[in-house]
Amino acid sequence: xxxxxxxxxxxxxxxxxxxxxxxxxxxxxxxxxxxxxxxxxxxxxxxxxxxxxxxxxxxxxxxxxxxxxxxxxxxxxxxxxxxxxxxxxxxxxxxxxxxxxxxxxxxxxxxxxxxxxxxxxxxxxxxxxxxxxxxxxxxxxxxxxxxxxxxxxxxxxxxxxxxxxxxxxxxxxxxxxxxxxxxxxxxxxxxxxxxxxxxxxxxxxxxxxxxxxx
Length: 214
Fold this sequence. Notes:
Blueprint: H1 2-11, E1 36-38, E2 43-44, H2 46-62, H3 65-75, H4 77-82, H5 87-114, H6 125-135, H7 140-155, H8 157-163, H9 170-213
Antiparallel strand pairs: 1-2
């Protein structure tokens, strides 16, 4: 629904009449643009805002009663209902906070990078966000590192295309390989833990039998 509203605004009421083949909003004035932190690396202030938001999310999730309730609802809805937590309200608040974070990221994308909003602005960010959240194991501080690494992989697409003659879709392949490896590691880790418990209990059984026989 949010995507449909965005496209309606960009291609309808907020559309710049000068944008013919690529519907977009009017260019953002320089007074409202977001500058860069360093001219050497050309990194804008959105990075600082993202780090601050992740730090606040870490404090909320790890060091507050509300964050503990969010973790319970996210882990097991049935257990949360048995504890008497307002599951629907917590889910709604989580969606609002996630939407606010996405809106903040979109604001920096328009104000610091694109200069205007268009329909192609939101392509691919959903899947990248899911991959970052999965790689970070839902740890807000780990999201900082994972987001920077994945952003570097995506930014290297044009460089790979120019210098190595690889297609621009190479970055998507790299992200897919990374996601498959994470899934395989998650599955193998669970299996290894299961096997350890199984063999540990098998090793204890004879010893217990000897003690009882004696």
